[in-house]
Amino acid sequence: MKVKVISRNPDEHLRETKLHIHKVxxxxxxxxxxxxxxxEYVKALNAVKLDKVFAKPFLxxxxxxxxxxxxxxxxxxxxxxxxxxxxxxxxxxWDLPQRTCxxxxxxxxxxxxxxxxxxxxxxxxxIGDDKSIKTWSADEPAFGEDEEPVNxxxxxxxxxxxxxxxxxNTFATSGELCQLWDETRNxxxxxxxxxxxxxxxxxxxxxxxxxxxxxxxxxxIILYDTREKLPLRKVIMKLKTNKLCWNPMEPFVFTTANEDxxxxxxxxxxxxxxxxxxxxxxxxxTYVDYSPTGREFVSGSYDKTVxxxxxxxxxxxxxxxxxxxxxxxxxxxxxxxxxxxxGSDEMNIRIWKAKASEKLGPLKPREKAALRYSEAxxxxxxxxxxxxxxxxxxxxxxxxxxAQGELRTIKERSKRKEANRRAHSKPGEVPFVPERERHxxxxxx
Amino acid sequence: xxxQTVRYFEKEESAENPSNNNGTITYDNTDIKKxxxxxxxxxxxxxxxxxxxIQIPNxxxxxxxxxxxxxxxxxxxxxxxxxxxxxxxxxVHRKRIEKxxxxxxxxxxxxxxxxxxxxxxxxxxxxxxxxxxxxxxQKQIAxxxxxxxxxxxxxxxxxxxxxxxxxTRNGRHLLIGGKxxxxxxxxxVTKKLHCEINVMESVHDVSWLHIETMFAVAQKSWVYIYxxxxxxxxxxxxxxxxxxxxxxxxxxLLASCSDEGYLSWLDVSIGxxxxxxxxxxxxxxxLTHNPxxxxxxxxxxxxxxxxxxxxxxxPLAKMLCHKAPILGVHVDPSGRYMxxxxxxxxxxxWDIRKLEGPLQDYKLIQAANNLSFxxxxxxxxxxxxxxxxxxxxxxxxxxxxxxxxxxxTPINNFNFCPYEDxxxxxxxxxxxxxxxxxxxxxxxxxxxxxxxxxxxxxxEAEVKSLLEKIQPEMITLDPTxxxxxxxxxxxxxxxxxxxxxxxxxxxxxxxxxxxAKGKGGSVKIARNKKIVREDAKKEFIKKKKELxxxxxxxxxxxxxxxxxxxxxxxxKIKK
Lengths: 445, 575
Fold this sequence. Notes:
A: Methylamine Dehydrogenase, Chain H, 5-stranded antiparallel β-sheet, B: Methylamine Dehydrogenase, Chain H, nucleus (chain A)
């Protein structure tokens, strides 16, 4: 007779002293873990609810400007620095972690139209309505010294936008013309034009340094190649484009903020139709900026909200608004990909978290693992109705809510009308035009 | 052609010791050109490089790569067969699903590999030649094993009538209730008494709640909840004349069946009834729950076993198991097999997942009043004052009992202790703990049920389990259905179509605009109302007809027949 009965030594399962952690013994036998799917579902539901509980995206505001914030610029290497310009010509430099203003001076007579840092980050260039391009040192002047520009260039034409080359010492300005400048010279290197329309924004491609994109007041988006004499291509939209931003990770892709409440993502190789139409805003979109990962971008709009879009999705994943935030003039995504900065008409710059419910600061390994696990669960059960409903729900301001309803009825009405016209005309007379092709009028070469 | 690049390792092998092939590879770093910059880094690398990298030669070159766990083991941990990739048409989705399937397979393999890490070994009892395991008595077994394990065999002689006993989910604590009102809760391993009370009423059943600090007692007329000091916490008058209690730990439901035929689920986390139905099947006294899907299994006098969930007034399923009143039902912890016994001395094993069977059909010497499955699928059968334990009785026919124990008094109820080789038997004259080697799972999972739980751990686990409480609506016959894609079955489609027949036209509340005086009389208004209503009705009927029509009829082949001159006089076919 051979016999053995389970007999455990408690010492193997109990901790020795209170200073030790409890011993954990796992047995992954599925019989010991019943209701796997149901428990995972409940966990996913809890995770998505907790996300809502912790969604506190607003971190703080930077006040000090005496007029609306017109433009902002991020430092290429220091994420704690922010430079902002206002409608009264004032430029301020901010220390973001301290939330204090370190420098303030009046740079221009009239609106500051654009600010860019040079690639090394030791200077920044501002343009204003007084047709001047001023270069400033990034360091504060010594005590008792006045704020003086390092260099001032008087341009012959009005300036409206500026973009710096990502590797070179050149920068481009837009206005009546598109001009290329060298930091060391007072005359433009080149002047490019296509038609007589003014350009209100220009952006260098982050990788192909010779490619420039600009948006013009004749509702067009123009691509330039600085090596060639003539511009490359032009695409005309139904309404004006306000701002343009290249995707930093897929540099052939750019997104435009349009007056018709939408954002359009274009592939510069095929401008016939946008790759994606990003809808959700209920006012003209004024500004767009990509996250450094290239997966998401943030947009500010005239409807007083900031929205975050996933680059390949048609609708926003997040909406930020406060009672006091007015029309947005500029939004930036910080270079550590964690924060979003928004400047608005009512003189404030606001700091938001890029992920509304993210915990700031260092995480412990167990915390990290738990967050990763709940992230995976949320993804797995994302399409369950309850999970979906909670994850999607956002409280929006009344004016946005009402405008959304109004837009919906407008859209339905036009759709119905088109369907009626199609039903009552010869087959093929009223063709079905996909949403992506609807907003582009034509492409010129 | 330029100069051929010479690599230092090629040179070394060919020139110095070409036969250095016994598994040791030595790198000579002296030839590495030192760069002017970053010398410190270079130097460090050289220092590191001087270490010998020793490769242990493969002892059996036949087996290369990682060790794969055996197939049966992977099968145990597998999540079922994957998605049929042939049906996925788009390449993007196919790639995504392929990746997912790969991950699932990987996780199953890894889970199987973790079996190596399990520390404890399961118990066993083996007979020598000419012996059978049935012949060994408890005394003999207890003599052969170590003292700590032998202490698990004990006998409590009590005098408050037939006893019912239940273990907690981690198998550490025991609750016994005598018919004459004696209730005691204790840690049966250390024999430490938590409380001992006499409720001065008849006790029909007892049950632990989710932790060992609370238990429910079904008394003469109502159910009471006590804490582990014997203080009455609640008296639940909505549970009336309860005969049996069951606790569903993941749903926090205290299920009970009553003498009056009522079945009820009480959510103990919020104190509300999740469901209470009159089964209409008379006195209920055979109750168990299926640990795999949390449905309740009721045995009836007609030989039927019915399965219940709190969401439906009707049973989810019914099985005619015997042609005689059912005396005992039990489901094994994996939810695969159900054992039923009837008064005609039959014992049957059923495949409960398919609701099929019987897999095994036994005829006993005496009718079995009680049945209980252990974690390792051993079946204890109580007949009168004898308890027999059968091993491997589900898929194969057991020839003889694995163990047998005879009591002096009749058996009232018994349960296997989880994670122990122990069967706790409540008899008319007390409680006996029997040793059944190989009955329990040797390796527990601390995060699921921990016999060595401290107070702080228990509190944490309670909070965690409350957060993960599964809603009573999710109790179905198939617990994995929540993770499945919701595809309407043919029956659903037919039902939906049938329901169209009973659709009612919408009620139109037509309020005519107020016109100037003298522009229309009440007659006109009434007529307009009628027209509007009839229009809406017509529209509704038309739409309904469209829905009812089969789409296939559109492509029905037309009869090929040349038109005849006289066809024009035929009645026109409406389209």
